[in-house]
Write a structure and sequence with these properties.
With 277 residues, the chain is an alpha/beta fold. The protein has 12 helices and 6 strands. The mean pLDDT is 91.
């Protein structure tokens, strides 16, 4: 569905069809009819909202905005714009009382700790509301974030599925254009919205275009990192990306389990194979 030649060229129509079918099949085959997702006002969650609405219908798509107080009010406005455009329900849960209560006796906590707690409390809210609405939690992480570990374990990574998990950020933008995501969301700098002035690219230290180009070489083309400078890539950036991938591997796998019995979960016993799904 993509070609990595001179640029990322995603077949947006075919990818949309595949992802829509994926969401519909994975939600319904485990007995659900609804999907629930966090709608931040950013491009990733907007694209997932569009895909989920196509897959399940607006009446079976629940979106939840989870702002921290009055931080970044424009994001809530953008989330409402997407919900109105799709005709889906947008619930709003202010997580600031929960976050502030947790850190009340820990004023020394830095913004990374606070950001991780925000991400995990948002997922607690989503899973609690998933029970209310009998909906499966749909994640919004993309391939770029997952590969470099730019996400919070058991926070924004916690979900039943990641429809964008094999789609680079550069390609998410192409998909957003195809799906009709409002231009202001596509154009604004990506941000997890964890503190004032925070942007993804500022934290990562390079643009998504630079990052995705390196990831394609290392992951999709399997080019050894020491060969990339000769192919026109900055050696320091390549090393940084490679190190982020290496040190975040633990986030991309289920908790490890030693094999003790004759039928061990995820060793010998695999539900899909053993139970016909």
């Amino acid at each position: 569905m993509r070609a990595h030649g001179d640029a990322f060229r995603l077949n947006a129509e075919l990818t949309t069809e595949a992802l829509t079918r994926f969401i519909r099949e994975e939600v319904t085959k485990v007995g659900f009819r609804c999907g629930i997702l966090g709608l931040s006002g950013g491009i990733d969650s907007a694209v997932v909202a569009f895909l989920t609405t196509r897959a399940l219908g607006a009446e079976h798509t629940v979106c939840v905005a989870m702002p921290y107080g009055d931080h970044d009010p424009a994001s809530l406005t953008d989330a409402q714009m997407v919900a109105d455009l799709l005709g889906v329900r947008l619930l709003c849960v202010d997580i600031s009382p929960m976050v502030d209560a947790y850190f009340a006796d820990m004023p020394e906590a830095d913004r990374i700790r606070r950001g991780n707690v925000m991400a995990r409390l948002r997922m607690i809210v989503l899973y609690d509301l998933s029970r209310v609405h009998q909906a499966l939690v749909i994640g919004t992480s993309n391939k770029t974030e997952l590969l470099i570990g730019y996400s919070t374990l058991w926070g924004d990574m916690a979900a039943a599925m990641w429809p964008l998990g094999d789609i680079y950020k550069t390609e998410v933008r192409q998909l957003a254009e195809y799906l009709g995501v409002p231009q202001p969301l596509i154009a604004k700098p990506p941000s997890a919205g964890l503190w004032d002035g925070q942007t993804d690219e500022g934290e990562i230290g390079m643009s998504y275009a630079e990052l995705d180009a390196i990831l394609v070489e290392l992951v999709d083309k399997r080019i050894p990192k020491h060969l990339l400078p000769a192919r026109g890539f900055d050696a320091k950036q390549v090393e940084r990306v490679s190190e982020m991938m290496r040190t975040s591997q633990f986030k991309r796998r289920l908790p490890l389990m030693p094999k003790i019995s004759t039928r061990s979960i995820n060793h010998d016993f695999r539900y899909k194979r053993d139970w016909g799904w």
